[in-house]
Please model this.
Amino acid sequence: MIPEVSRLAHASRPVVRRLLGPPSMPRQTAPDSSPARLSLISRHLAPVYPINTPYTVERLPSTIDTSLLPKAQTRAMSSQPPHPTLLIPGPIEFDDAVLQSMSHYSESHVGPAFVATFGETLSMLRKLFQTSDPASQPFVLSGSGTLGWDLVAANLVEAGEDVLVLGSGYFSDGFADCLKVYGGNVTELKAPPGSKPQLPEIEKALSEKRYKLLTVTHVDTSTGVLSELKNLAALVHRVSPETLIIVDGVCSVACEEIDFDGWKLDGVVTASQKAIGCPAGLSISMFSGRAMQAFQNRKTPPAAYFASMKNWTHIMQNYEAKKPSYFATPSPQLIHALHTALKQILARPLSERFALHKEASDRIKKAVADLGLKQVASNPDEQAHGMTAIYLPETVKQTDILPSLAKKNVVFAGGIHKEIATKYIRFGHMGVSVLDPKRGDIDRAIKALQDGLAECGYQKA
Amino acid sequence: MIPEVSRLAHASRPVVRRLLGPPSMPRQTAPDSSPARLSLISRHLAPVYPINTPYTVERLPSTIDTSLLPKAQTRAMSSQPPHPTLLIPGPIEFDDAVLQSMSHYSESHVGPAFVATFGETLSMLRKLFQTSDPASQPFVLSGSGTLGWDLVAANLVEAGEDVLVLGSGYFSDGFADCLKVYGGNVTELKAPPGSKPQLPEIEKALSEKRYKLLTVTHVDTSTGVLSELKNLAALVHRVSPETLIIVDGVCSVACEEIDFDGWKLDGVVTASQKAIGCPAGLSISMFSGRAMQAFQNRKTPPAAYFASMKNWTHIMQNYEAKKPSYFATPSPQLIHALHTALKQILARPLSERFALHKEASDRIKKAVADLGLKQVASNPDEQAHGMTAIYLPETVKQTDILPSLAKKNVVFAGGIHKEIATKYIRFGHMGVSVLDPKRGDIDRAIKALQDGLAECGYQKA
Model:
């Protein structure tokens, strides 16, 4: 399990490209992330339809008859119409009040009512990330979670600077690709699927070169591998104190403990649609005073425009001070939904929230073990609490089990780590599905998995 | 009115910076767009509050008592709660059905139902942009409209290539700044506030240098100046046929005629929250086959990651072919709202929509003239049809008239063009406020303007 220090050699890419046909995108460009990401469609389940097999997007019908989708309601007492329960590792099921906030009437993005809402949202993020240091700086931008990578790569790294990426799966590979686009000199410490680089290897790498920045994917959504942060951060502060510690928290913020100040993290980037429980469309991040200072000490201008901290920092500071300010128009509706979601989160102690996610995760992981199945994340200490990636029995295909679950109104996701994509499925358990026992989502999903596997002919050996 | 060919010399910036206090952002960075944009807060009205004067964000109260905001309903028969009518040049008032689509229950971003919705949305955009050329490529990304500038600058221009920006106001300056961040060698043909570069000047500029790309802001939201596109495009094709023609259509798409194929445009970038009538949060664009070919012929990789056409082109093509595909998670709720908005738009002939916007605009402009007031856009042929920028009488302050309008439940915006910001107000008239006569928004706003000016002591000379 010794991770290989590599510069992102992607041996399998020619195969991917062959299956996709001749590339029409520029050949000279690097890093060559598009075909790989493209082919690695999440295959989050096409209910009652054939599922794509890995590295093909060509086999799906070009027209989909959505009237065939299941319509049965899965729970009562909701303002939402009947729909299958979405238990993929994001987007997750959303609370009624959060969805209703999405329909907020139109407001000026610089009017006092919206400015107050945005300002409160930014202040609440400080509590979610557990930072009371006034030098910490939150950002909320319209964009996918991926935009957070650009925010880090275009502002905290200058061309030619060394970056160490801890490789725990598909998403750390993506972060590495992004850093390279903006000129980062990336070393990726890669672990085999289902594990992560270990502290001794990381210490060795840090002692060999002076890295401007280290990135760690807290939970790699491709594998469900959890990277412990407290000891990692302590190691970095001891061995390479000038290295900024940047966490990809897309699949961890609001379901895994993150003590931003206590662990002296320098940046956590995340998205709205996972454990925070707000529809997709927002890149949400927090940076330390030290990270902001590193940005201010740049010798070259930020390498992006929309993702430039130069353009956004004062805007965020003004919104938080309830002063109108403009760089680009934010989405009042999404900010309202995030505001509602954060109010719900902060109405209870965060420790309770993390404990409830752990409790549900333990129950799911026990059920998986009771079924005689293994997780992709093999080490119990490295298993996420908001999702579970489950190896299928050899006799059961993804293309059988996912539609079987769909018929039971439960939507799981297929695999996405390219070395093992067909061999496992992903079960997301974050937010209201875990916190609202009246929904019964988790028990129903476990039952559906048990029944579905039985229908596929699987019996525990 | 001969525009000055300049390289974006911003003489007023030291003043801006002084008013904002010492810069905490890096000094070496260029272009220095942040302080300018920051200071130019839209001042879209703080109902019943003092409005910021230009170049200050410091005078607003740090705490806003939103209970003081007007609560009266402005129209009946809506599912929206009472709220002031938003008549700024975006975001606009939204239709009930569009807002309801924002609350759509959670769906997998790669599930067949959402893939079908996204695919239909992309196909409908072809109709909105009036392109039937299959080589044309639509993009819909999570982000502000500003992200469209990055899409152009990071993909269609390589470092050191020459770009001609037609400068008609604040937003063309912004596009120029963005192009420079990605290495474009920008020449901005600047016109005085309220006008635009004229064809002879443009012809002269095009004949002096070979430009990779020309940008034109169809309607500059800062001034309401409309740049005619048909003759401009014909000129470019005649004088400099290899130059790509890129249109900033943020304040024009869906309210001004744009014949993408007929005029042989190469790119139009826009946002969701203006005349398209969908809440903010989406960057929407269309590029010609020729533009996509120029992208494919790049010698260097795209200069951004989230805004990279390399990462998104196949994804958009797959969604449109109803095949699931993944690069970064789109926002299913925003895409549903855009789908609803586009269905509404395309249910009637586009020509009728443009005519209704022109009719309302004519009525507003006549009312403005009848009041003895002048528009910022002085030439009637250069006046936008979705907004009107109105010079205030010398005796009336922005800080008096905007709150007076707010008390009448009408929200206008302040000025934003930095040379004249305090001297004018902006009235947005796009989408349902123009198309749904039952709302009575336009007549009520005209009446509010008349009454408000009278209350401020103004009488026509």
